[in-house]
């Protein structure tokens, strides 16, 4: 116990002495560095030249720590830039998809520009006033009617694709039953295979195809047009493209924009003239047939 007390009595003054010496040295260094004198400046330069190079080993950890901090900040900036580039890449992918869709739509419109319908087909443009508002009936009301020459059964288009047919005509209004209505049955042709089928509405935006001749010849993306069978619709009107639902059933993605039906074109279609002499279309007339036809033509006015 006595020996421990002697050690403590010896260490405490020594600590105080060392602290005092350190304080005095610091004060001296401070004063030397603050004195503005040429001699003192030369002394400071000599001290720096002598002491600082020998302290490289002491500054190495500090320098390494600073470099690590700078590298970490650089890596963080690189990570942020990488995340930003990823976001821009996602946006570019979305823009690429939109550009591809616009390219396909542009190609479809260019294809439509090459379509030549029957020159006898004229149209009347009407404004869509209201829809049926019923989930069981898909139809719209137009502001054109009997006074404008509208007739039941005429086809209605939105400028690109077939929308439906006239079903009910008033004096100043008419109703158009859409292709999506359950009562809609439209004969169509699938191109390029030329398969005939029936487009049947089921109150969905993509009606299904039924009574297809050979399903193996039809692929998603094939073009669907009206066939003209039955004499209701003229042939060659664009309906849409073939699509396949998750259940494997073939449907038609309609070309008409059903979300924005503002104006509809009602095509005047008075039907096709029946063929009285199909053989005359296939081959040229013989001399005897020409004489007979001339005699018939000459007798017609007198008759």
Short description:
This protein has 303 residues and is of the alpha+beta class.
- Report the sheet with the most strands, covering strand number, pairing sense and barrel closure: 6 strands, antiparallel, barrel
Q: What is the first-to-last residue Cα distance?
A: 156 Å
CATH class of the domain at 123-267: Mainly Beta
Would you report the number of β strands?
12
Order of helices and strands: HHHEEEEEEEEEEEEHH
Number of helices: 5
Secondary structure class reads: alpha+beta
Q: Per DSSP, what share of the residues sits in E-state strands of 2 or more residues? A: 15-25%
Helix content: 40-55%
Cross-sheet strand order for the largest sheet: 1-2-5-4-3-12
Q: How large is the radius of gyration? A: 46 Å
What is the subunit arrangement here? single chain
Q: What is the annotated CATH architecture of the domain at 123-267?
A: Beta Barrel
Stated plainly, the CATH topology of the domain at 123-267 is called Thrombin, subunit H
The global form is rod-shaped
């Amino acid at each position: 116990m006595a020996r421990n007390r002697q050690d403590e009595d010896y260490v405490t003054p020594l600590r105080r002495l060392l602290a005092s010496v350190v304080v005095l040295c610091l004060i001296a260094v401070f004063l030397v560095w603050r004195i503005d004198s040429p001699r003192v400046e030369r002394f400071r330069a000599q001290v720096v030249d002598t002491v600082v190079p020998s302290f490289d080993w002491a500054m190495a950890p500090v320098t390494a720590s600073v470099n690590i901090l700078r590298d970490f900040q650089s890596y963080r900036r690189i990570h942020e830039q990488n995340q930003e580039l990823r976001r821009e890449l996602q946006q570019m992918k979305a823009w690429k998809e939109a550009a591809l869709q616009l390219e396909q739509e542009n190609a479809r419109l260019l294809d439509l520009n090459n379509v030549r319908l029957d020159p006898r087909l004229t149209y009347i443009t009407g404004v869509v006033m209201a829809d049926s508002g019923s989930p069981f009936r898909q139809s719209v009301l137009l502001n054109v009617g009997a006074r404008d020459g509208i007739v039941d059964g005429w086809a209605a288009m939105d400028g690109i694709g077939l929308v439906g047919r006239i079903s009910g005509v008033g004096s100043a209004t008419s109703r158009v039953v859409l292709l999506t209505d359950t009562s809609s049955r439209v004969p169509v042709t699938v191109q390029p295979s030329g398969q005939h089928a029936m487009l049947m509405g089921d109150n969905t935006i993509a009606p299904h195809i039924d009574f297809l001749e050979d399903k193996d010849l039809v692929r998603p993306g094939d073009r669907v047009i009206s066939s003209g069978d039955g004499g209701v619709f003229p042939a060659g009107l664009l309906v849409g493209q073939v699509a396949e639902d998750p259940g494997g059933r073939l449907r038609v993605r309609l070309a008409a924009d059903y979300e924005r039906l503002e104006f509809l074109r009602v095509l005047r279609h008075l039907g096709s003239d029946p063929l009285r002499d199909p053989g005359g279309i296939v081959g040229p007339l013989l001399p005897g047939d020409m004489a007979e036809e001339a005699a018939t033509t000459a007798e017609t006015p007198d008759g």
